[in-house]
Amino acid sequence: xxxxxxxxxxxxxxxxxxxxxxxxxxxxxxxxxxxxxxxxxxxxxxxxxxxxxxxxxxxxxxxxxxxxxxxxxxxxxxxxxxxxxxxxxxxxxxxxxxxxxxxxxxxxxxxxxxxxxxxxxxxxxxxxxxxxxxxxxxxxxxxxxxxxxxxxxxxxxxxxxxxxxxxxxxxxxxxxxxxxxxxxxxxxxxxxxxxxxxxxxxxxxxxxxxxxxxxxxxxxxxxxxxxxxxxxxxxxxxxxxxxxxxxxxxxxxxxxxxxxxxxxxxxxxxxxxxxxxxxxxxxxxxxxxxxxxxxxxxxxxxxxxxxxxxxxxxxxxxxxxxxxxxxxxxxxxxxxxxxxxxxxxxxxxxxxxxxxxxxxxxxxxxxxxxxxxxxxxxxxxxxxxxxxxxxxxxxxxxxxxxxxxxxxxxxxxxxxxxxxxxxxxxxxxxxxxxxxxxxxxxxxxxxxxxxxxxxxxxxxxxxxxxxxxxxxxxxxxxxxxxxxxxxxxxxxxx
Length: 494
Known about the structure:
By secondary structure, the protein is of the alpha+beta class. It folds into four domains: 210 residues, P-loop containing nucleotide triphosphate hydrolases (Rossmann fold), CATH 3.40.50.300; 79 residues, Beta Barrel (Elongation Factor Tu (Ef-tu), domain 3), CATH 2.40.30; 115 residues, Beta Barrel (Elongation Factor Tu (Ef-tu), domain 3); 34 residues, no CATH class. It is built from twelve helices and 25 strands. Strands 7, 8, 9, 11, 12, 13, 15 and 16 form an eight-stranded antiparallel sheet that branches. A six-stranded mixed sheet has the order 2-3-1-4-5-6, sandwiched between helices. The protein is flat, with a radius of gyration of 26 Å. The chain starts with 24 loop residues before the first helix and ends with a strand.
């Protein structure tokens, strides 16, 4: 770990030594509060070493308390899989009994730690296809993804699946961690072959920021410190990279979006609109427009608990007051008049099915989008995605962990952007109205034009899905043709 005593003081009581004499504790705490936060996830196939990598990262950066170290050593002797006398770092993350018995990750495990440069929240996500929804949950707020591959097997089907899911979530930074390099004698040729194959994959998905590392999570090579066993590798260690990767441009600071969460009226002299800035920047005196009324006004003040601000930006929680009296309610949005999101009730979206119950297109769901909640129906299924091959398949009702493209219509007007442009206003969830379970999460692709809506309204007859035999197809074709002559169009899938 770097010694940074001339800059920010070393943390107290976390294994990094005593606080240097003469350092002001208030200054230390203020400096710690100003650190940026990096959210990251790890993904990979079974036994690629995700949990071991994070455990080694915590262990070598000396971010474990004494009782954690004692418990880790005890558990390693009792249920560890690293070998006799070895510490099993994966046990720091795999806490469920089933995880320790099977040696796999099942649920998402979160770990927080900080260094002198940055704070981190790590989500250790499971690699099994049956836990796709767990990975989607863990990666929904991540800035960076670490994709692990075994140096002995290279890029495999699971690697492609995880990379596709990361691209679907719009994560901007990807780290390819080629793990278990100690088992291939730290071969530069092996690493180069895997790196080139993976970069070819990410270029197909349009992912630009990819950084590759040769690692041995179990033995600590290139995790916190550079390893002498990879003299051919000239890049930084993994921790050095995580401390310095730029993330300040990941948030959308161009498009101001302010979903109103609560109308604050403590007395007759104050009326403010409280909420969290989803994206963009707002300043006192800026002209704004309220949606959907399209009434214009200017920002009179930006109020917080600590006092008024001259400007605010995402993801700050503030209360805005306007110079004019405008009727604005929860679920509505304040934006700039020259930068307005899509306003409509129909859109095309990628959907990840999260419910144990299969999709029922006859059901009306609750759709939660920012502070807005409305009824919604799934009009049509465009296609499903085979997450292992990224092949598009014919649409049918989704089942648990399946992903695809659908068209949705809502009862109320929504104010949204494409997910690729603005994550905060391009994402939503579908809620089962009976069980209140989260049925699906969605990432909006585009609004639907009138011709798209007309086409989406065409009824579809899926003959294989209904179990209708091929001997009946000819009669069905005649009936559909007759209905078409009467002005009723029906799409038939055979």
